[in-house]
Amino acid sequence: MDNLSTLSVTTFDDIGKYHDYLISNETHKKLFANADYECGPFENSDEWHFSLGEDWKYNINKYCFRDTFIPTNNIWAFGDSCTFGVGVDVPYPKMLGANNMGMIGTSIDTIARMFSSIQHIQPMKNKTFLFFLPDHSRFCWPDKDRQPTMILNDTKDPRLPMYVSNYHSDLEDLRTINYLNWIYDNAKNNNLKVCSWSETTQNLCRQTLPKECIIDLDLKSLELDYARDKRHPGVKTHKKLYETFKEVL
């Protein structure tokens, strides 16, 4: 990841640094010229292997996110590939008229850092921020000078492996709670709504955030169909997400 600190992101032109999957994909590298562009399935993705030459298209804006980006928009949708809308033509953020800030393969920590950067670049009030979060077990490790930076990697204490092994779940929960609190702090004076497609993460959201911020999802009722890659939510599921979110926004 290029941006180890949110301070390295100083304009909207920089926020695409957070979308690691997109900016590292060969399709994007070939087509991106600091302007909006249209592309088919991303090279070597599941959808790409299923495409069979069909005319499936994504509209990518100059900030490296999907569809139209309007800095003054009243609704912003944050999330992973389910929000981006892998494998569908019209994802739920577009139905809502929201800025689609979904990032393929991302994690809660990356989403929180991007949101912090956006609020630093353009502090907003009276907006609606919708977070549809991935599973909390995802974690994007920073890479500094091409050397992976591991937590506590300098310690020689032989008890460390046992500690990590025994308390890994607790560490994951605590890390997620910290990022949820960071999102909440950065969303003050706005309408914050949060949920997750992961039941474990949804429970952490309920435990951490005020009740009025939580969208209670019936996860089973949302599993209506699959997208073109046979993995992500399909057209019917995105329509159901739109209807669910529209009701509470």
Helices and strands, with pairings:
Elements: H1 20-24, H2 26-31, E1 37-39, H3 46-50, E2 58-60, E3 75-79, H4 81-84, H5 92-96, E4 99-102, H6 108-121, E5 128-133, E6 143-144, E7 147-148, H7 160-186, E8 191-196, H8 199-208, H9 219-222, H10 235-248
Parallel strand pairs: 3-4, 3-5, 5-8
Antiparallel strand pairs: 1-2, 6-7
Helix pairs in contact: 6-7, 7-8
Provide the descriptors you would attach to this structure in a database record:
Rossmann fold, 38% helix, two-stranded antiparallel ribbon, 4-stranded parallel sheet, 249 residues, alpha/beta
Beta fraction of the residues? 5-15%
Instruction: Give the SSE order as H and E letters.
Output: HHEHEEHHEHEEEHEHHH
Detail the poorly predicted runs: 144-154
Largest sheet: 4 strands, parallel
The structure class reads alpha/beta
What does this structure look like?
The strands form three sheets. A four-stranded parallel sheet has the order 4-3-5-8. Strands 1-2 form a two-stranded antiparallel sheet. Strands 6-7 form a two-stranded antiparallel sheet. 32% of the residues are buried. Helix 6 runs parallel beside helix 7 (160-186) and helix 7 (160-186) packs across helix 8 (199-208). With 249 residues, it is an alpha/beta fold. The model is unreliable at 144-154 (pLDDT under 50). It has ten helices and eight strands. The chain has a single domain, classed as Rossmann fold (3-Layer(aba) Sandwich). It is globular, with a radius of gyration of 18 Å.
